[in-house]
Write a structure and sequence with these properties.
With 407 residues, the chain is mostly helical. It contains 18 helices and no strands. Helix 2 runs antiparallel to helix 9, helix 6 packs across helix 10 and helix 10 packs parallel to helix 12.
């Protein structure tokens, strides 16, 4: 836990810097284009390569040293920020530059996700998986509190270039903390040894594993369906606030910060409590709460205080949904194949999420933002509620043996 705590603290610092930069990019892109679709395209391009390359990344993560993968992906992401800084400082920054950096950042995120998720499995016991996800969720949420506040306060003082320099300094801090800890490699299992083959065969293994495991297949389908509606809620929050307040940066910062407060509260509660004994309740009830009290409330509200409340609940339930789901997968999938299995799941789940991101901006411009959010929230809640009607989802934890029990 000591090594994990060091890793966790380094990630908090790095996430704050990265979130400040993307907050500044959001303001810059909105002022440059003035369209919700421009912000949606940035999010889409950041997610696209992380989805498309995730199966390849997962196969390589299972082959390579996971700590080294994390170090190299962090370094490459920092180089992308450095490139934008140099263009902005010495050239003429265009919207397509932001698009390009979003693609590069997404590519290296494809390696970060399976490496970090699989590393937690080898660093901690399974009883701590949900708490670890709560801690990581708290790190993400804390960055969401501080980044908009710092970003809004510093943007007028140091400008976009100054914020990117701060981001680069936080990358360096995270790099040093990761260098200082030991990340164990997983011990070989029968499943892992049997899955060895060519790179192409190993890439396909993750998809076969999910297809042949009924409950994991059902959980993946649930998140594929719900992801479209969650993506709409996440993507349209910024244009909703900016469009409704006349591009008020402080209003957007207030709403995003309150959302992050909700994430911190939810993650802290999950870290201390550990969630319900059956993780699936965290997933399904948390998903319904995020959609009804988060996305629907955002669409129904017409003032900053109401948008802030919707953002709070949207983020509050996220650690329970993600933490509960990840804890199930970490307990049921052998550690030495998690890179491939988690990456395959990531691809399957994120493709619909990508479609939700890309379509949200155009839906909002065609029908207006508020009704789109209300509809997405209602349909998302219904999707999670249907999980209770499906036995492979509802009973996933009892139908699948734990990895240690299976051994």
């Amino acid at each position: 836990m000591r090594s994990f705590a060091i890793l966790w603290f380094g990630q908090i610092v790095s996430l704050i810097g990265s979130a400040m930069t993307w907050f500044a990019f959001t303001i810059w892109a909105w002022e440059a284009a003035g369209k919700a679709s421009a912000l949606a395209v940035i999010s889409f391009l950041a997610f696209l390569p992380s989805v498309l390359f995730s199966p390849l990344a997962g196969a390589l993560v299972d082959r390579w040293n996971r700590k080294r993968v994390m170090l190299l992906s962090d370094l490459a992401t920092a180089l992308g920020t450095l490139a934008v800084f140099l263009i902005y400082t010495f050239g003429d920054l265009q919207l397509w530059h932001i698009y390009l950096v979003s693609v590069l950042a997404g590519f290296f995120t494809a390696f970060q996700y399976p490496a970090y998720a699989a590393a937690v499995t080898t660093m901690l016991s399974k009883e701590d998986y949900a708490r670890a996800e709560g801690m990581l969720g708290a790190a993400r949420a804390l960055s969401g509190i501080l980044a908009p506040i710092f970003g809004a306060a510093l943007l007028g003082v140091v400008g976009l270039s100054g914020i990117m320099l701060i981001d680069l300094a936080t990358f360096l801090f995270a790099f040093v903390t990761l260098m200082a800890i030991h990340v164990p490699q997983p011990k070989p299992t029968v499943t892992g040894l049997q899955s060895k083959g060519t790179l192409r065969q190993e890439i396909g293994f993750g998809f076969r594993y999910i297809r042949e495991t009924q409950s994991l297949r059902a959980l993946t389908a649930l998140f594929m369906a719900a992801g479209v509606f969650l993506a709409i809620g996440a993507t349209l929050m910024a244009p909703l606030v900016l469009g409704g307040t006349g591009n008020d940066e402080s209003a957007l910062a207030a709403v995003q910060s309150m959302g992050a407060v909700g994430g911190v509260v939810g993650a802290a509660l999950l870290s201390l409590w550990g969630g319900t004994r059956r993780r699936i309740h965290n997933v399904l009830l948390g998903g319904m709460g995020a959609c009804l009290l988060g996305i629907v409330w955002l669409g129904a509200g017409g003032a900053v205080v109401l948008w802030a409340a919707g953002a709070f609940f949207f983020a509050f339930f996220e650690p329970f949904v993600e933490g509960g789901n990840l804890a199930i997968w970490q307990a049921k999938v052998p550690a030495d194949v998690q890179g491939r299995v988690f990456s395959a799941r990531h691809l399957l789940v994120q493709v619909p999420y990508l479609l939700g991101i890309l379509g949200s901006g155009y839906l909002a411009e065609g029908f207006s933002i508020r009704p789109v959010l209300i509809g997405a929230g209602m349909l998302g809640a219904l999707t999670f509620a249907l999980g209770y009607a499906l036995q492979p989802v509802r009973e996933a934890e009892t139908l699948l043996p734990d990895v240690m029990e299976a051994a």
